[in-house]
Amino acid sequence: MGWGIATTITGGDGKGLLLPNRKAPTPQYASTKEMEIAIRRIREETGPLVDIISMDPEDLHAHGYSEWSTVNASSLPVAVAYPRSTEQVSTIARICHEYHVPIIPYSGGSSLEGNFSAPFGGISVDFAYMDQIVQFNREDMDVVVQPSIGWQDLNDQLADMGSRLFFPVDPGPTAKIGGMIGTNCSGTNAVRYGTMKDWVINLTVVLADGTVIKTRRRPRKSSAGYNLNGLFVGSEGTLGLVTEATLKLAVAPEALSVAVVTFPTIRDAASAAAEVMQNGIPVAAMEIMDEVQMRVVNLGGATAPRVWRELPTLFFKFSGTKASVAENIGSVQGIARRNGGGKFEFARDGREQKLLWSARKESLWSMLALRKGREEVWSTDVAVPFSRLADIIEVSKKEMDDLGLFASILGHIGDGNFHESILYDPNNGEREKVEECVKKMVRRALDMEGTCTGEHSIGWGKKESLLWEVGPDTLAVMRAIKAALDPRWILNPGKIFDRQAN
Amino acid sequence: MGWGIATTITGGDGKGLLLPNRKAPTPQYASTKEMEIAIRRIREETGPLVDIISMDPEDLHAHGYSEWSTVNASSLPVAVAYPRSTEQVSTIARICHEYHVPIIPYSGGSSLEGNFSAPFGGISVDFAYMDQIVQFNREDMDVVVQPSIGWQDLNDQLADMGSRLFFPVDPGPTAKIGGMIGTNCSGTNAVRYGTMKDWVINLTVVLADGTVIKTRRRPRKSSAGYNLNGLFVGSEGTLGLVTEATLKLAVAPEALSVAVVTFPTIRDAASAAAEVMQNGIPVAAMEIMDEVQMRVVNLGGATAPRVWRELPTLFFKFSGTKASVAENIGSVQGIARRNGGGKFEFARDGREQKLLWSARKESLWSMLALRKGREEVWSTDVAVPFSRLADIIEVSKKEMDDLGLFASILGHIGDGNFHESILYDPNNGEREKVEECVKKMVRRALDMEGTCTGEHSIGWGKKESLLWEVGPDTLAVMRAIKAALDPRWILNPGKIFDRQAN
């Protein structure tokens, strides 16, 4: 069956199960007065020792506006709540449910598609004070954490406890577990270790009306009932507020090697990457960076005085036992050579490995640091099947270069996933050109049977793309699930899709 | 937060979102007359070239009764439909929706918990004629298939096309992709390759009212909208009928080695297995079999004249490059020795590897072959965190042995997942004793924070266990999702949970 059929065969009689949501009115949220009552009641029920509510204007701005997001809503939350426990989150939800007040969860704030913006006002729930490891089950290879622990901090704490275990999902350095669950994020390790959904054993979730559920106990594998982990992960806080998560951990490999290799063109680099995957070589990570992004790394100076060649480049991480690392390097070198690749340059020691990899991971922030005056960065991602990678990257890069702006391509090419990052001045008409260029890339990815986002998620910014991607009937299924779990539509409204069908 | 809290903190006001489903009445299904009209209309709309409906009594029996299931309903389906296309499945659903006729999907029929039983009658939809590879995307490492292709047949066809790619999820030999999706099945390879949900790229699904959706296009990774793949996989046909699936494929490893090693006690074997996992050794498979199950292998004669020692045993599969296989064998041998393990015995060649592994995989059928007279087999599975594996296996085996029946323990121990298989005579009161023994094992697994099923799923037989496992509020979330997507409750009713709260 081709893709198009999904919207043409419809067996319903026009009064089918999905229709009610299509005709649902725009949600009506609390008036200012009701909002004030709700906030007062939250203060009463969670106080008096600590006031968990902030209405400080700077705080509201920080929780409703992002300088690195592709989009921002014109409104801000009316309050920020800082709960200390699942019980307090439950209280907030119960009261917001009663008064129809929107709730927007907030953890690291590093998302890129307006995911924590507040288009309908409401209360931003910042989990800043829920950032602890609750329980480390060393023998079971899992850890129970609160949502505002950062993945780097989690790994540092595990290392401090003398553990060989680590949490392998590695998005942007400032990302926290709660948001990582919300967006089903990934990172450079995803090609080896998978994405966030693959590492969640259970979640404690506060539902729209304040009910607290736990999705499962602690088995690493289960076929018992619906996979609620898989549903809540990636739902961007629109179905519930995650207040605790049990995460699988992996055993740190014995040996690690980091290398870079340059190619004459970005197409050659992409072709080599696809071949590595098609040969099943278990690289630990494989990243593509174009010549512009390599320049950003050099400008950032993370590995100074060492300077990298400013050419299309693949970054590799190899890990495993010493013998398997050596074998994998040999196999990948052969593939790179056949695709025009140069000599492998290896990080010389653990310190350089770390610096080089962090230079890759800091790339968005390095771009942001290069902004002058009023410039902004548009950073977006798509993913396509392997066979189309070289094509889409080549064409998209050309179109991007034709803009005449400072712009780069980079990404997790082993997952078929890459990013465009474009610096522009929003005040001289550049934004429209950038937006058009990005939308063309998204359309192209969909035409190639890809997705409009491999890891950033939909948020406020990519709702139209999601509709293009899955079509109205699939979107109606998502909307029906949302309506069932959040009938008053108070959880992160305006994200992923609107209540009314587009 | 401990487990118990989920049912004690509830923020709702008693009029919350989950309540409507708790009070919903038992569904009313079509009368015999309405059922007849529905069947006639299905015949009319899908004919006249082929009659896709069978009402042959033997056919009805084969689609409503299973001699290897732990439970069977007292009723049978009233008809079996054999659709040839997604469009025909859509027609069936649309008409059944109109007349309130239950629909029960059927593919391999090898499930163990009454998953395809027909407690409310209705139409069994057997996908037997939808068993093809629709499209093989070699470069993208994926394949589009219909639901009734068997996983072994899929792999044979891929090999015939000269591909190094294979589909790694390996449950019972007769399982087919549709049912494997329904139960989120796994198998011996799961410890290395994960379970069914990890291998699904997209699904074409016929919803309750006949609407056809596709969950995604073909990206191997995506963060776009709700993870409907993850929701439909494991939902046992209660949310929709899968008519097509795009599956990821893996590259076959270069080298393979199969070995067995015996231990003085089942506890020692389980301890060794947990240590292998805790050391992160990437075994391709690791299975436990007790002395009874080893006897079954010998009795089966698959590897005759070679006879295996009838002691608690671990089966290992090692795969990768030659060097990494050698390294992994060395590491595992060290762990086995420290836990009292004997000498590793390796399969001598590819043929013996295959025979030995298939003896393991055929174990349930080998048990069935040993039945005398009216005897039946009860086969059930649980999974627990690694640290509890040795404890639960030791105690459960003792309780099982105390029954004085022919009974064995075996399983996918690298996932913390194992099975009890017990031969009993249902006509002399043994069934009650067996059931009590099995339920005690399930309770014990839950007390150890495990799950009532690692891979068999809930079906008709384990609904009570699921309630024990997740509690009423989590079950209410599942029920709310079901009610949203299947408001007339026609899709595989009576499975996973009942419409009315238990």
TrEMBL record, chains A, B:
Keyword Flavoprotein: yes
Cofactor: FAD
Secretion signal, residue range per the UniProt entry: none
UniProt keyword list: FAD, Flavoprotein, Mitochondrion, Oxidoreductase, Transit peptide
EC number: 1.1.2.4
Domain of life from the UniProt record: Eukaryota
Catalytic activity, as annotated: (R)-lactate + 2 Fe(III)-[cytochrome c] = 2 Fe(II)-[cytochrome c] + pyruvate + 2 H(+)
Every FAD-binding PCMH-type domain range: 73-252
Gene Ontology BP annotations: lactate catabolic process
Subcellular location: Mitochondrion
Similarity annotation: Belongs to the FAD-binding oxidoreductase/transferase type 4 family.
PANTHER family with a match to the protein in the record: D-LACTATE DEHYDROGENASE, D-LACTATE DEHYDROGENASE, MITOCHONDRIAL-RELATED
The protein's name: D-lactate dehydrogenase (cytochrome)
Organism: Cytospora paraplurivora
Gene from which this protein is expressed: DLD1_2
